[in-house]
Batch of 3 targets.
Target 1
Amino acid sequence: MSEGKKTKYINAGRDKKWTNGVVNPPVQRASTVVFKTVAEKHHATVNRANKTLFYGRRGTTTHFAFQDAMTEIEGGAGCALYPCGTAAISNTILSFVETGDHILMVDTCYEPTRDFCDKIMKKMGVETTYYDPMIGEGIRELIQPNTKVLFLESPGSITMEVQDVPTLSSIAHEHDIIVMLDNTWSAGVHFSPFEHGVDISIQAATKYIVGHSDVMLGTAVASEKYWDQLREQSYLMGQCVSPDDAYLGLRGIRTLDVRLRQHAENSLKVAEWLQNRPEVDHVRHPALDTCPGHEFFKRDFTGGNGLFSFVLKTSYPRATTALLDGMEHFSMGYSWGGYESLILANEPKSFNSLRTVANPNFEGTLVRIHIGLEDVDDLIADLEAGFARYNALILEKEATI
């Protein structure tokens, strides 16, 4: 019997062999697994890569349940676990490249991903070419004979460009290139990676999977073609996570759908309100046509979340500081995906060190916000008060000109 998505999130990873008669899979902590007979040890050794208790780094029943759940949600053949999203990205790439290889990396990638390519991959003799997220068919011109990986992130970090994943994936596969996607924004819920040509879907489960801003966790779900290599290479690099963290990721999945729907509803209300503010040049919310790649969002995604950006008409750091300081419900923090609302500002010049081919074509300050689960009216009132502080500084500046 097929299950609806909401039912899947409730049942994923709850096989009886993991739950042992209770609702939630228990937290099983272990390093050493002991065997009473040579036959038992032999069985565990032979099946160590197939969710069999062998040694703590291979996982316990808690890890196996979480891996099952993520595989069921995103599709694919298996899920590797990592201590954070950055580890998931770097170790997934490391699992498939070697000296002399070439990577195509989206220019709007998460900043630590860029640092990994520029500082670690470069040192290992792996070349990275950054490409515009909206390149589409033009990606053909950047493919080299030694291109091994095409890395996508959609929507992009900070500036929120939505990529044409099916087109990019199809072209990559013509050249036997592995397609990797940072799928954190959709949480694997609103974008089905393997239905759109992705080979490995990576998430910072720190964000929406856990959902409560209290765990560092990463996942990578791979297709059957690449699962064995991802699993074994990650194991050899020592990647493992605490069973307690795996449990919290598993627990977060139970409310994932309802949380995302509320985040999306709240964020769209705030985004539409921001569109009418005189201080705002445009809003970069994938569900709005002012966001680059909005047409791909409508075609490929089934919903949104709480994260988006808006661009102010001017760049005046003192006024931006006044906007951010004094917020009651928005806090400043380098993450998102929790139940709380967050806000960060990026001046246009800051992108010069982060982008090489996709520098944004606006002059005003970009403000990225994560809309949490608070009352929307409270969040709007908070932003309105922030704009009042912002405008006071703008008027003060104009008066001195």
Target 2
Amino acid sequence: MDLLKQSYTHGSSPLPPNATATPYHVYLFGGNISKSLSPLLHSILFRANSASWSFHLTETTDSEIFRKRLQDKTCIGTTITMPNKVSFGLLLDGLTEEARMIGAVNTSFIRLDKNGQRRHIGTNTDCIGIRDSILYRMPHAATAAKARPSMVIGGGGAARSAIFALWKWFGSTEIYIANRLEAEVDALMTFFQSTAPDITLKYLTTVEEAATCETPYIVVGTIPNNIPREPGEITCRKICDTILRRKDKGIVLDMCYLPSPVTYLYTNGKGNGWTVIPGTEALVRVCIAQQILWLEKDVNQQGVDDAMSAIWKAVNQRQSGPKASKI
């Protein structure tokens, strides 16, 4: 079931016939979001669809501010980032399967119930961004990955989205986890035992395990591009290096894109013959999925191309600027 069709299981469209000419607003809620690239990308995508809509940053963790925005009839949707992905999701009227199983919401959209009342539905488009960025580069990936293991680097919220995507759309038989802290992996495994018990997770703790396990077809990185210093970080790096040096090759997607999308994982994967995908592509695909839910139509290809070009230019400018830093 495609994204838009699935959204209508939560209600009917709230958009009037002249929706693109109506001055609707979308809001991003989170902490430390002043340098977010979402306004740049969404303004490009809105313009490409001839929508006179606007995108606003709301730097807050206050749930009452979030509630008030939802009550505004000109609010057509929201994006939600850290640290609000769990707490704000609880304030919405319904959740999609992705949001329930991942346990975090990064997007809300509106559908009308049978009485015409607005319902704010929470979903997770991070997993869709992962899926679509892989399939755009490698259309056969869903077939090639089926019945093979995958690997996720990290143990936080982005790792949850990656695990769900690899299980749901790529049919991974087993998903390896490489992470610096065992406690984070334990929490991850406990969580998915309650929401998706069919997912098989394996924590790789040694280089020897990485050298002898079946080579994963898809590797998704979800951690910052920092130099490893602590013992757990060093071991995690060695495990990843060992996997990438294996004879069999597949796909590497690194979600990290700041201060540069050309990360250690990206460079190492490319150098070892893997197909590599930068985090900038995943971010654009996340935004495209959000636009489809709000505008209720596909984004045209020119808008996608413009967004891809703009984000590369933006991150390169930040990297070369005098105050470039990671977010």
Target 3
Amino acid sequence: MARVVVLGAGLTGLAAALVLARDGHEVTVLERDPADPVGGAEDLWEHWQRPGVSQFRLGHMMMGRWRRLAERELPDVLAEVERLGGQVIGPMDVLPPSFTGGPRPGDEDLRTVQARRPVLEGAMVAVAARTPGLVVRRGVKAESLLRGAATDGVPHVAGVRAGRDGEIRADLVVDAMGRRSPLADMLSAIGARRPVEERDQLGFVYYARHLRLIHDDVPQIVPAIIDCEGMSVLVLPADARTYSALFSCAADDRALRPLRDEQVWERVLALFPNLAQARAVSEPITPVQVMPGAEDRILRFVDGATPIATGVVAVGDAAMRTNPSLGRGTSIGLTQVCVLRDVLREVGPGRPERLVTRFAEACEETVVPLYRRTLAQDRSRMAEIQADIAGTPHPPAGPDWSVTRALAALSRTDPSILRAYARMFNHILEPRTALDEPGVRATYDELAPTLPRYAGTPTRAQVLAAIDDGGGG
């Protein structure tokens, strides 16, 4: 058994706490935001304040990879999400048989968890409260690290100092403080080197609204990502017949900045016929929310073969951060959590240097490839968007991006390709592996070379005209 302190009670921090506590460890979670969630889904949405999580009321959906891991590791969390009104459901469950070809084995793999972020996190909080060996302390901020005895010049973290709670000793500190984590500075303060960092500032920005379907007899919203000239549109269904729609754009695209205006946002949404139909039977429950996309970033806490410190690891956005419009951060985070649990079983807390290096090795094998694929997709999409803005030819695409774009287009007409694309989108298959799914390669080889880049979506000129209509910017 190890004494573990988890810093941060977000989705990945609570997942880490639950998984480790259930494996027999004594876990304390420190969360700087003081409010404790209470009530049902609407209370959580309306009243729970999480100033430490900038995306708390933006769209979320837990992809198929996260859902599969949660079914194995956190089934009671999924049950609590459903009790609060969330859904575990997939596109094949709601799309018409004429589109899907009817049910097929494996369709259950494509089910996602659909709920607003406060509902998802509230479900985890409720389960954590009844988990033996797990304590969550809210309104407690980790201010600094406790330095233990160094080994061969490598500083050792022996716990944290946490304001009025004083010193909290631990065998392992798990950083789950998200994209703004101060861990690098905290490590420097005890004489450790800073983590080895890779950054890609791709420059996305999001203009989003949450909406609610007005009538119970309206068909359910299906998740979608629609790439068009100069931007993308995402639709993410949630609980209580709510959903979010957002425009993913280049931050330097000044012509699209008027999308922060509600009337402009509505005019542009109306250019997409399917979305306009849903909007006609919906009411907005938020204004337009603007969120700049954080840079894609990976931190490594082992330099070569030597840890920069022992007794501390990072998970989720604190270690690997990706473009949130792809919705893969929580899947990457929960995968890391399971890797950490397995490494603790293998190594134990008594060998702190081996624990840190083995965790880094295991992440390179199982988690970093997920990050790399996501980053490659981000780069390719932003390169397309910048070419659209400039009116220049698109740069050559790598093989994975070419497969992704073609399968997205072909998924609208072929049930087998629809499933392969959905598996790829849900982080279950790699793009080139998706071509080996039954019934995919022959159609892909025949039709992919002739596909238009954008079909059935508004042009950039049409979007700009909608923005300028009535001077709404």
